[in-house]
Amino acid sequence: MGMPEARPQFVGNAAAPDFDTQQFRRTLSQFATGVTVITTRASDGAVAAGGPPFVGITASSFNSVSLDPPLVLWSMATRANSLPMFRDGSHYIINVLSASQIDLCQRFATLKGDRFAGVDYRLSATGLPILANALAWFECHNRSRYDEGDHVIFVGEVERCGVLDSGGHPLVFQGGVFSTTTPLED
User: Fold this and answer.
1) CA angle centred on 76, ends 172 and 46, rounded to 5°
2) Rounded to whole angstroms, how far apart are CA atoms 173 and 185?
3) Structural domain of residue 167, as residue ranges?
4) What residue ranges in 124-184 does DSSP mark as E strands?
5) Does residue 183 lie within any of the structural domains?
6) 186 lies in a domain?
7) Maximum separation of any 2 CA atoms in the chain, in Å
8) Which of 44, 74, 150, 174 could bridge to 32 as Cys pair (CB 3.0-4.6 Å)?
9) Domain holding 152: CATH number?
10) Whole-angstrom distance, CA of residue 50 vs CA of residue 47
11) pTM exceeds cut of 0.85
12) Total tally of structural domains belonging to the chain
């Protein structure tokens, strides 16, 4: 009879980082990510105070989790003003931006006030904005949230999704610049 396979021992705590914040940011920037705008409903208090009915943010932290059940994730900084609306809302839409939508990326990342003013969108089954000409979209039930470091990780259970029929190229962010993808030649 053979010896049981040796397994690494679990270490309870991570070692202190051996790098500074600048190096960490620079290293992370080498990972190319797609760009999304995530939308949900504004709080009743914000709307009552004359604010817009929807909120939206630009996020590049989107990723798939599971096919069965259909789960996706994204994260948001704990200091974000709109965090309570995403944390407390039952649903949100993840809009995958096309390369031609860099203006929407910047609008939802920086503009103060009504980010939806003049933006073309339609309403989902739950009454949330799906941005016109987004390459793809996912309508998610706000399944779970995890506080980790200076961000909250959201896991969404996808109830509906769709793809832009006319195709297009995704908006990609890497190394501090926006670009898109092109197929590699064989």
Assistant:
1) 115
2) 22
3) 33-173
4) 129-131, 136-148, 151-163, 172-174, 177-179
5) no
6) no
7) 75
8) 174
9) 2.30.110.10
10) 5
11) yes
12) 1
Going residue by residue through the chain, which has 186 residues, state the pLDDT in tens, using 9 for 90 and above.
Answer: 566 676 666 768 888 889 899 998 898 888 889 999 999 998 888 787 887 899 999 999 999 999 999 999 999 999 999 999 999 999 999 999 999 999 999 999 998 888 999 999 999 999 999 999 999 999 999 999 999 999 999 999 999 999 988 778 999 998 889 889 888 876
How long, in residues, is the chain?
Answer: 186
Which residue blocks in 49-160 are alpha helix, DSSP H?
Answer: 83-88, 102-110
Residue whose C-alpha is closest to residue 51's, from 60, 38, 42, 61: 42
Contact partners, residue 129, CB within 8 Å, separation at least 6: 39, 54, 56, 93, 116, 119, 121, 122, 123
Position 78 in a domain:
yes
> To which residue do tokens 């309570």 refer?
84
Rounded distance, CA 94 to CA 18, Å?
35
Asked if residue 6 belongs to a domain, the reply is no
Distances (CA, A) of 67 to 48, 70, 121, 180: 39, 4, 27, 26
Beta-carbon neighbour count of residue 58 at 10 Å? 20
